[in-house]
Amino acid sequence: MTDTSRLLNLDEFERAAAATLPTMAFDYYAGGAADEVTLRGTRAAWDHVGIRYRVLRGIAERSVATTVLGQELAVPILAAPMAFQRLAHPDGEVALMRAAGAAGAGMVLSTLSTTSLEEVRAASEAPLWFQLYIYKDRDASKALVQRAEAAGCTALVLTVDSPILGRREREARSGFHLPAEFPVPNLEGLARSTLASSLHSFIAENWDADITWDDLAWLQSITELPILVKGIVRGDDARLALENGAAGVIVSNHGGRQLDTAVQSVRALSEVAQAMDGEGTLLVDGGIRRGTDIVKAMALGAHAVLLGRPLLWGLAVDGEAGARRVFELLRDEFDVAMGLSGCASVDEITLDLLD
Q1: What are the φ and ψ backbone dihedral angles of 302, each rounded to 5 degrees?
Q2: Which of 114, 131, 267, 337 could form a disulfide with 86 if both were Cys (CB 3.0 to 4.6 A apart)?
């Protein structure tokens, strides 16, 4: 077992996970679409934004806490929705939920979780949102929303950038399939016979590729939970989301897994924030690897960030403790970056900090 105390940053966790995970699982988690241009460029895009820090601001006492959708977070981080987490560790989503709770973070649970949403909700009192797609079978979608409400999820995250599956060549090359021993308990009522052999076939069989803004209205009609629209990279789409009743949006290019050469999240964030003009909740994911990235995201208008693959690397290396270490590393980095930027609280992170 890797001594995670010796891993000093999130990139080191990725290297440790690559040495631990079976090739098929690692390639599924790590891979992107087509030539992986978007995947490779994500990290560099954050690096190219400079911080014009302030000095002599009295930052000995600092707080990295914030509030998102009325829910308190000790750190402005939520675990992004990620499928099939038990491929990384037997405790999968339950371990990640406990790690989020210990870190004072939140979690967005994937529809394609290998643990039921009820079990995940019971694992911690941390904020839990539920991610979903709209299915061809609207009754199945409605039943899943009702389950999420009954379990105590406090928001829904509608993913809109995946009406069809992107071309994931690394995944295909590794022959990815979900081993039969892994359940997908949130898919009750859906035809899932193809999932064991082909994720692409399962999505083509069940996801509705004809969804429109009218379907966001339909979703609102069956729930009282706030809905965030995930997969927005344009200001006009962000306005449409708000005009159609969304509580907010998540700027995301799906981790580079859908449309290759898609715009980087950090580049899209500025346009989206300007279009939203302070209305609704704004989050971002994609390539967050350092505390300085969170400073930049919040300066551009995000209320919090979603963290994806590094938490899977934490799970792979040391289960709940590994994921907790990932949260803690990023939290500590953010605290230092915020202080060195001249900010004593997240409210002081403003656009003028960026070069």
Answers
A1: -70, 145
A2: 114
Give the domain range for residue 40.
4-353
Q: Could you tell me the CATH number of the domain that includes residue 222?
A: 3.20.20.70
One-character DSSP codes across 102-167? HHT-EEEE-TT-SS-HHHHHHH--S-EEEEE--BSSHHHHHHHHHHHHHHT---EEEE-S-SS---
Give residue 39's Cα distance to chain centre: 15
Inter-CA distances, 273 with 300, 319, 350, Å: 7, 36, 12
> How many domains, the chain?
1
**For the segment 278-290, what is each residue's pLDDT rounded down to a tens digit?**
999 999 999 999 9
Q: Give pLDDT tens digits for 305-336.
A: 999 999 999 999 999 999 999 999 999 999 99
Beta pairing class for 77-79 and 71-73:
unpaired
Of 48, 89, 200, 254, catalytic: 254
- Reduced to 3 states, what is the DSSP secondary structure of residue 37? helix
Per-residue model confidence as pLDDT tens digits over 48-57: 999 999 999 9
